[in-house]
Design goal:
Distance between the termini: 20 Å
Strand content: 5-15%
Structural class: alpha/beta
Number of helices: 10
Shape: globular
Number of strands: 11
Largest sheet: 5 strands, parallel
Length: 310
Amino acid sequence: MIGPLSRCLSILIYHRVVPEPDPLLPDLVSAREFDWQLAVLGRWFTVLPLREAAARLRSGTLPVRSACVTFDDGYADNATVALPILRRHGVPATFFVATAFIDGGRMWNDSVIETIRAARGDTLDARCAGLDTLGISTIGLRRQAIEKLLAALKYLPLEERQRRIEELAANTPCSLPADLMMTSQQVRHLRASDMEIGAHTVTHPILAQVDPERADSEIRDSKHRLEAITGNPVTLFAYPNGIPVRDYRREHVDMVERLGFEAAVCTAPGVAHAASHPFQLPRFTPWDRTPARFVLRLFHNTFRTRAEQV
């Protein structure tokens, strides 16, 4: 068992920080929530850049109750909303960016979400996704429709998934947003603000579902693109989706190490400790919506048994 006073590392995962709560996506962290979460984190933990924390974990010099803040995917609000709050609290963070979506791209799940947001009427024909007609007459039903569609599409082959999403969106009465993800300039701005930039593949595939050559190029090319944008080495990696065995395998861990990264993170819950594999560091998502529950969750996470690895 891992105790809260041991030299372990809690790594938090965020995706978006929105200016105001989104009724359609209530799990998204708002700017106000992110502000108090950082205040709580800074009070109880020593917050370090991930690269430094991973190195100190290996060397045995990690401070007691250490933590890192990470963001996945590369959303524009990471730069416009989260960054000013991070800087105000003096908290470093690592941003894992999927490079295909820089400068106007859109991730598949956001295409689904924004299609449901823009849909007119009380029902949606979802047969193209292998589902029946879905009710969308209320916000609650629209949330349920999003959950069902994401679950139905997530593990389909990439090309088939994209085809079905395009068919689903064909009847949307307006264009889907093209500004959800970062621009190259925003990536550079984050790096110039002393934030870390990490690779997250090119198109965010589930690595266990693509052939080894594709997986290798996804990892390698994302690293090279981000290095070209920032002018700095990219030494950190996050596995898309990130569940060991189901989403990535040992061969992908070996690829990451061979391609010159120094550490990598997954989404197995728990804390990293001296025995953790440096290319499979666990992370968890801080879902709680009150300061007391948030800090309790942080400490509860330190008691988890060792995270699953491949």
